[in-house]
Amino acid sequence: MTIQFKDESFRGDFSYANSPSNIPRFPFPFPEDEYMYSTNIEPHHAARTGSPFENAFDVDEHYVAEMKDRALVLAEDPGRCQALPHMETAGWDFLELVMVSKARDYPDLFKLTMDGDRWHWINTPLQIDDTFTFGDSSTLPCHPMEYIGRQVQGDHAILDQRDGNLWMDAGIITAQADWSLDFDIGMNFFEWHAPVPLAHELGVFQRALKFLLTLPQGQPSRRLNWTLTVNPRLDTSPENYPKWGPDRMTVTPENIGEKIHLRVELQTFWRLPRSNAILFPIRTYLMAMNEVVTQPKWGRRLHRVMRDLRPELVEYKGLSRYHPILVEWLSQFDDGAPTSPGIFPD
Amino acid sequence: MSASDHLIPVVVSNVVEVNPIIKRFEFKHVNGDELPAFSGGAHIVVEMLDDGTKRKNPYSLMSSPFERDQYAISVRRDDTGRGGSKFMHEQVRPGMQMKISAPVNLFSLDLRARKHLMIAGGIGITPFIAQMTQADKLGVPFELHYAARSVSQAAYMDSLADRFGDHVSCYCDDQGESVDLEVLLSNQPLGTHVYVCGPKGMIERVVETASSLGWPAAHVHFEHFLAPPVGEPFEVHLAKAGIDITVGAEQSLLEAVEASGTPINCMCRGGACGQCETVVVACDGDIMHNDHWLDEEQRAAKQRIMPCVSRFRGKRLELDL
């Protein structure tokens, strides 16, 4: 099946939308009617044809538009892509993983030919056709992490492993939910998670770190995370807060269905072979409330999750200003019927 | 799900007698496929089907991390151990099919280092051979100091001297030579990281000397794999599975759990990685912990156990498995 790539924007006129056929494949993040933190990590096996879990790196109708938005962010702020000097090997590991995976999973879109260290890469949707020497950065236009990071949906942090901890020593982060690579770079696992409420007390981070430190090569894992965003804006960085913060004032009971977007991160974890670093892709999916409620199970369940959300989380996720009207609006889609287990629509 | 559940089928492509106590084994993928890339210091777990007993031992990869057509390991024969090295030496021949895990690295180079200082004792040389290949290719300075009992037991020294020249030095007990750690560690530029792999006493001396000279702990790295010790057989009750198992004298508790078909996580099989940590439901007796994972307080509490290297003596041990 060939993907029809959409011409759309994540800023200005916000022309982003999901095609009707794209809605059921959204990674809805709530397997139950209530939400609380959990480590919720599972193997990143290929799962369910047509779902975002089918391939190693999901490519969907928003691919080309997302890559254009990334280029705009990087042109304005090159600090969104940074790698400490010892992370070059990890950059090559990342490039190899993406190229090998995409060429295997989407042969009609991507092609990789390897002749020893001499590699030929064709990315048809972005009209890229390059030959380079694997491991030799002078044969690429930029750092290997930036080169491939401009061709794969989602943000990518690369974590160095040493001293029994993980360190955020490289990343290409242009579509973040209110955190900053520039602020976090060089921090360890506990430092960059410091602002998260409740989870420290629950021991979530200790368990997650232990799991990640022993992540085996060839056995990636995944989890879903979520927040809400006003307007389909990918770049909700602290650096650009003045641009998106005021959007929250614009939410009314009349426009809430089109304004508020469920923002889901499909996070995956990969052990990289030559650097022993961990690649942490954070793929963001956006869906307007009006689109979410086209699936009756999701509308029902989202009402219950939002209604019962702990106050600390309402505040941490930045929902306070419009949370009551959102719960009220969602209640019209909750007929009180039971919901089926799991995240997929009925 | 554990690393050793995802095994790679390989064929033994070569067996080389390096000296009277060390053999090198080379593996290729049975289909001729490329093997996974890895980083210097990584190990694989080799599965051995030894006359009805399934053994799994970890061995450091010594082949080049940049070549994926084959892997090489070296095995030192230990006649007083549980039998894995003896099996490798006596039973494994070229052409034999075996299974290995994907590489795991618990001893990787710190890529921030301005210089890598490597100290090896005996068979502890193997992870450094791959690490030197990696450091050489990355263009980061390194030095290897290699202690062996005798010239004839200093495996690979000749080829390392040929490849890396003055970067490697060897010290043989029978020549009255030894590494002066104080001098060696005192004369390193700031930004050097030291790595040690060898007998326990050697690791302790390097760690203590570095500490006394003011080295930051984060610049001192050691590989501390343990072979599971042999001992008296003992009984264990697995609470979730609802079964009793017997751990044989030369078997590890982990191997006995696996043999019973009960699921258990594991990775290094040497008491270092923490994957197999298990809750102790009841313990009337003494756990011989043997691992490098639990702290003193946890050991004393008898509420956790590392089945890969720990043994038990007493009336009853019940685990949450």
Annotate the secondary structure layout.
The complex is a heterodimer of chains A (346) and B (321).
Chain A: E1 42-43, H1 63-76, E2 81-83, H2 88-105, E3 110-115, E4 118-123, E5 128-133, H3 144-149, E6 155-162, E7 165-172, H4 181-184, H5 189-192, H6 204-213, E8 221-230, H7 241-244, H8 256-259, E9 260-271, E10 278-288, H9 289-292, H10 296-307, H11 311-316, H12 323-331
Antiparallel strand pairs in A: 1-8, 2-7, 3-4, 4-5, 6-7, 6-10, 8-9, 9-10
Chain B: E1 8-19, E2 22-29, E3 43-50, E4 53-60, E5 71-76, H1 84-91, E6 97-100, E7 115-121, H2 126-138, E8 142-148, H3 157-164, E9 168-172, H4 181-186, E10 192-197, H5 200-212, E11 220-222, E12 234-238, E13 243-247, H6 253-259, E14 278-288, H7 296-301, E15 304-305, E16 311-319
Parallel strand pairs in B: 7-8, 7-10, 8-9, 10-11, 12-16
Antiparallel strand pairs in B: 1-2, 1-6, 2-5, 3-4, 3-6, 12-13, 14-15, 14-16
Throw out a few tags for this protein.
heterodimer; A: 346 residues; alpha+beta; three-stranded antiparallel sheet; 10 strands; 27% helix; globular; B: 321 residues; alpha/beta; six-stranded antiparallel sheet; 16 strands; FNR_nucleotide-bd (chain B); DmmA-like_N (chain B); Oxidoreductase (chain B); 2Fe-2S (chain B)
Descriptive account of the structure:
- The complex is a heterodimer of chains A (346) and B (321).
- Chain A is of the alpha+beta class and 346 residues long.
- Chain A is globular.
- Chain A is built from 12 helices and 10 strands.
- Chain A has a 7-stranded antiparallel β-sheet with strand order 1-8-9-10-6-7-2. In chain A, strands 3-4-5 form a 3-stranded antiparallel β-sheet, with helices on one face.
- Helices cover 27% and strands 21% of the residues of chain A.
- The radius of gyration of chain B is 20 Å and the shape is globular.
- Chain B is 19% helix and 33% strand.
- Chain B contains 7 helices and 16 strands.
- In chain B, strands 4-3-6-1-2-5 form a 6-stranded antiparallel β-sheet, covered by helices on one side.
- Chain B has helices at residues 84-91, 126-138, 157-164, 181-186, 200-212, 253-259, 296-301, and strands at residues 8-19, 22-29, 43-50, 53-60, 71-76, 97-100, 115-121, 142-148, 168-172, 192-197, 220-222, 234-238, 243-247, 278-288, 304-305, 311-319.
- Chain A binds chain B through residues 43, 84, 86-87, 89, 93, 96, 160-163, 210, 213-214, 216-219, 273-276, and chain B through 1, 3, 6, 36-39, 41-42, 65, 101-105, 108, 110-112, 134, 138, 217-218, 267, 273-275.
- Chain B: Residues 234-321 form the 2Fe-2S ferredoxin-type domain.
- Chain B: Keywords: 2Fe-2S, Flavoprotein, FMN, Iron, Iron-sulfur, Metal-binding, Oxidoreductase.
- Chain B: Residues 5-110 form the FAD-binding FR-type domain.
- Chain B: This is Oxidoreductase.
- Chain B: Its cofactor is FMN.
